[in-house]
Amino acid sequence: MLKDGALKGKTIIITGGGTGLGKSMGKYMLELGANLVITSRKEDVLNSTSEELMKLTGGKVLPVACDVRKYEEIQNVIKKTEEEFGQIHGVLNNAAGNFISPTERLSHRAFDIVVDIVLKGTYYFTLAAGKNWIAKKQPGTFLNIVTTYAWTGSGYVVPSACSKAGVLALTRSLAVEWAKYNIRSNAIAPGPFPTEGAWSRLLPGDLVKKFDPAERIPLKRVGEHTELANLAAYLMSDFSAYINGEVITIDGGEWLRNGGEFSHLEHIPETMWDQLEKNRK
Ligand code: HXC
Ligand code: NAP
User: What ligand has the least distance to the C-alpha of 222?
Assistant: First the structure.
């Protein structure tokens, strides 16, 4: 979508960048000329993704293992990134943990594990990168991946819903507070985009056959990774320099449809509408 070289000279860190959506967004950013740093817990996955993406795009990728729940490991990512590329321009907070469960079946440790990765991991990375930018008087861009239940809430993924809501509040709060330092903060709220990580945990076993996510979506399909990558690259680029504190939904109309009082009327066939019209007249 963006012009060639739209991210040339920019260095972007993507948490959870070795798999799924993080990997797809990273690939497009590389194609647009960015240097990429990908982090997550699994070093082997990061290394093979780096190799693959460098071969595919000819860009530079630095893999650095980091658990976003550990502040010192985040500081190490920042240090390694600056040693390799000089300045950091953007941080894409994308790492997450999630699974479905009735809330009463969760142990407090299970609740913690998701909140620690999603909410704590995001504010840890934000704090470390933000302090670094402020101290060095450098501008920066945060892009945080949430989802639409950050504002609707959702049963069965309650730790994730609480965490994503917190990340959205963080995004909006810092967009205002840190604008004076030339630091922008935005979020993207995707609907369903197929990834191994999400599908295996949110639609395990036969659930994928029983609950086709496309059925809930007015456009009757799930998202394509390139569609999300286009939006993420735009929000990371200088073309979006005046967008700050925004959350952009990319879900084919899903959340509005499922909140709409009369959305179910789409199941009424044309013949029944004809009959209703006759009755009215
Ligand atoms: C209930 C569970 C559980 C499950 C784990 N636990 N899985 N409880 N149902 N399915 C409990 C365990 O019993 C344990 O509690 C505690 O959680 C920690 O579990 P571990 O397996 O030790 O944790 P760990 O190995 O660190 O794995 C973390 C994880 C895992 C979050 C559980 O799924 C993971 O690594 N996820 C990373 C990637 C990911 O989740 N991607 C999907 C993002 S999709 P006890 O009490 O027994 O000790 C997404 C989409 C949002 O966010 C929107 C979609 C539209
Ligand atoms: P994914 O491939 O499972 O991505 C999650 C990533 O987070 C993994 O690379 C994982 O790598 C990393 N991670 C987990 N715990 C971590 C930790 N403690 N420290 C560092 N990294 C950690 O799933 P995805 O679908 O691409 O999800 C990406 C983002 O999109 C998430 O924020 C998710 O909530 C959001 N999202 C996804 C969808 C969807 O339909 N797919 C919809 C809405 C929002 P390691 O295991 O190596 O650590």
Answer: 2
